[in-house]
Amino acid sequence: MLTAKSSVLGGLISALALAACSGLPSLAASRRNAGRMISTTLLVAGCALGITVLAGYWLGGAPSYIWSLPWNSPFGPPQIRLDALAAFFLFPVFLIAGAGSIYGLGYWAQKNHPASGGRLTLFWGIMTAAMAMVVLAGQMVVFLSAWEIMAMAGYFLLVTDDSQPNVRRAAWIYLIAAHLAALSLIAMCVLLHGMTGTFALWPRRLPADPGGISVAVFLLALAGFGAKAGLAPMHFWLPDAHAAAPGHVSAFFSGVMLTMGVYGLMRVAAIFADPPLWWGGTFLTVGAGTALLAGIWAIAQTDFKRMMALSSIENMGIIAMALGLAEIGISTRSPVLAALGVCGALLHMLNHSLFKPLLFLCAGAVIHAVHRRGVEGLGGLARNMPRTFTVSLVGALAISGIPPLNGFVSEWIIFFAFMVAGSTSGPQATAALPLAVLALCGAATFAAYITWISLIFLGRSKTDATAIAHDPGRSMLAPMIVLAGLCVVLGTVPAALAEILNRAAGAWSPAGPLPDIRSIVPFHIFTVLGIVLLAGAAIVGIALRRHRSRRAMPAAVTTDLVPAFAAVETWNCGFSPRVGRAAYTGGSMLQMPTHWFRSVIRPRWLRPRIEGIFPLPAEACRESPDPLLDYLINPLAARISRTVDRFRRLHGGKSQIYILYMLLILLILTLSIFVTA
Amino acid sequence: MFASLITKILDVVILLMMPPLLPGIINRVKAWFAGRKGPPLLQTYFDLRRLIGKQSVISSATTWVFPAGPFIVLGMVVTAGLLMPLGPAQAPIHFEGDLILLVYLLGAARFFTALAAMDTGSSFEGMGAAREIAFAVIAEPALFMVLLVLVTAGWQSSGVSAVHSAAGGLSGYLSLSTLLLPSAHAVVSGRMQAALILSAVALFIILLAECGRIPVDDPNTHLELTMRHEVMILDNSGRLLAAQTYASSMKLLILSALLVHLLLPRNAGLTDLSVGAWILCLLGMVLTVGIVGIVESFMARLRLKLIPMLLASAFLLGGFAFLLLIG
Description:
The complex is a heterodimer of chains A (677) and B (327). Chain A has helices at 4-21, 24-28, 33-59, 84-107, 114-136, 140-158, 165-196, 212-229, 238-244, 247-269, 277-299, 304-331, 335-370, 381-384, 386-399, 406-422, 435-457, 474-492, 498-508, 523-549, 586-589, 591-596, 598-601, 627-645, 655-676, and strands at 65-68, 79-82, 565-568, 604-606, 621-623. Among the domains of chain A are: 1-198; 536-601, no CATH class; 627-642 and 652-676. In chain A, helix 3 (33-59) runs antiparallel to helix 4 (84-107), helix 5 packs antiparallel against helix 6 and helix 8 runs antiparallel to helix 10 (247-269). Chain A has 25 helices and five strands. Chain A starts with a helix and ends with a helix. With 327 residues, chain B is mainly alpha-helical. Chain B has helices at residues 2-17, 21-34, 43-52, 65-83, 98-119, 123-158, 176-179, 190-210, 229-232, 238-263, 275-298, 307-326; one strand at residues 56-59. Chain B has one domain (33-326). Chains A and B meet through helix 13, helix 16, helix 17, helix 20 and strand 3 of A and strand 1, helix 4, helix 5, helix 6 and helix 10 of B. Strand 3 (565-568) of chain A pairs parallel with strand 1 of chain B, so a sheet runs across the interface.
């Protein structure tokens, strides 16, 4: 007779094992498609099993489970721990891993990439299992091992296309950042052990602040988890890595891997039952700074995968802001603020791991179709790729927070939390001021995604590159449609998640139960609004479709709403209409805000000199690299490596010498014990 | 119950019938200052009737976004209008946090206007859309700042001890219909009045920008260097143009109603059904657009590079007002 606990454990372990081993057939038969198909089937089966187990777990009331492996390691028995918060973060891992691997069948087809396809599949499965393990880990060694495996698997996924020098460079930077993060987390775990005396994760509701150690734990966690989530200034690895990886890997990274950082931050935020006020303030400030910078940088990008990566950073900043509000709510004993903040953070995390992978998959489909990355020279693809256009539009609307899509609900909750924070007396009312940052980010996201959609899909094509483009095959389209559908469903029926949010928030809360989110957020109004707006859109759509079936001219559009029509060229004030090259480009569309914020963006203009009577053809372009990388991280790294260079002569290169060093250090430590005693 | 039904019906009637009057008022004011006779007050109504019966010309470069856009915009703006109390009574739809939805609906309208403009593939429309979405980057934070001031002031003047009780209930001071109701404010301090006046000035600047009026945009032309709204709808004709025109005049109504409600005398015995209060609100809106007309008569458009400064000053005014309140 299986108990609920052991069946959940068995299910999850089998799901993880299926995922982790799924790449082997593909590796064994790298020249054939069959191996890849078996691998993908195994992975999808594992993910489906995982999601089923999670569904059962939620229906069973989401109790808190701890399993210890009876194994006498020096660090205590390895533990796995599942509670409502962990289950909340597990869902996107399984969903995006499954959807992305199906997409990868078409995007990174085995017959086109026989060498890298098998490797990609292998590490995809390992990455999935490792991320699930990061969330499930209940003990420091398990956690740190899973974290490191995740980081390394991520590296190998990132260098899939290792013939490109920019890919290798991005992967190198990623590796550095991943190790910096891991180092901070090892130090954090050591300090946590010093504070609590156990190796178990995650301590919760510790009574009082024992002093300086907690400050160090907080800052190390912020650095380590912040680097993974992409909080500034530790985000420097992120834009290049997302731009360099294949489309579905970018989707996996930004949809799921970044949320591992958020997960860690949430766990650390819940250590103390009465956290100091500056913790929340720091989350809020770092989040606001990240969101502001990334939101502004995003509008200056002309490589749309880079733009989307920056918008991921911006969303992580927004989540950190919401978490900050929750933490302030706990510190100031305002359960409403805490509930709004944590539910806003969780829901926005979930929404982001639906619409951002969707957008990356759409971007991948466009790259797949036209074989180029920038928005320049594209246009008019809505005609060649109508399905991709529709799902891309859903993604863009969702991330811009247009009702009734899912991004709106979580942004509404976070705005609402800010307004509640503003209606408290005392200095904590200033916590409401980052509201302006959130508004600016919203408008900047708008601007970036309108530009993306319209320059790729609307208007007329500027070059021939789009002529042969067509919708991708079924294996690529299906995951996109599923994610787009989830965006619509969660936006229209957010109440379906209310109970899950309540339990996850309760599992997070370091200070007793939080109020029911349904008593604060009018989910039913969003449902009514969603139904009304969708019905309106359907009416407009049906009217458009009816006239399309009886259109008179091939390219013309008529509608029932527009009774009589005449199809002509776009009015161009008397000039020749066929000047696609004169249309707006990625560079010109957002030139104005780029210019306003030039001190933050620091764009670089590459203008060739035009000389002589018969000048050669020349091209001018604008680049917007990461200013923090150029002006802060790189000089700092150079300085550190200069300093460290002085110790290089201590490196003999022979292991005996290093063992001698260890012996000496141990000797000194032993002596120091005698001296102090 | 009966009274609230009457006020709601009145609200919807005003929302649907009054918008085209406002551009007419602005034009009459401008004509009066220029010494001209000017178009009839009801000219926009005539225009709309004429446009609905007209043939539409649709560019062959467009997809379904272009013909669908104006109707989606109209739907979003009408929904937003239903959240805004136009008179001294509650709006037809109201709930905690409806003010955030209002801003998002207006944003959605902007999204689809810009998208439909880009669908034509013209560089003129591209220019208008580029400017529209760029200005929003500064105008949106300013608008949210004004709303934050409104929320904080509303809560402070309510006399309620906290917006949220420890048990989790909210006291209603996060809804436009409560915040703007003149009868719902018990304590009004001078500091609060000052903050509200500051944010009203900020809101007036935002109104000029959002509705495409001088000095931010010139509604009379699309062939000028500061063109924005008019150029985005350059390719619209017939019913599409009618939907866009009607929606943009309704946006003017919504924002001027918000402005009027910021400045309504609080705690002065104005109730839901008092005829005087309704007339006061409507007169306020007429006066607001009248001031827009006066501004348009006496100012030229600003140079494009100065517009972000103007919008940033609106944001700063909102920020000062907030600090004044919580200080």
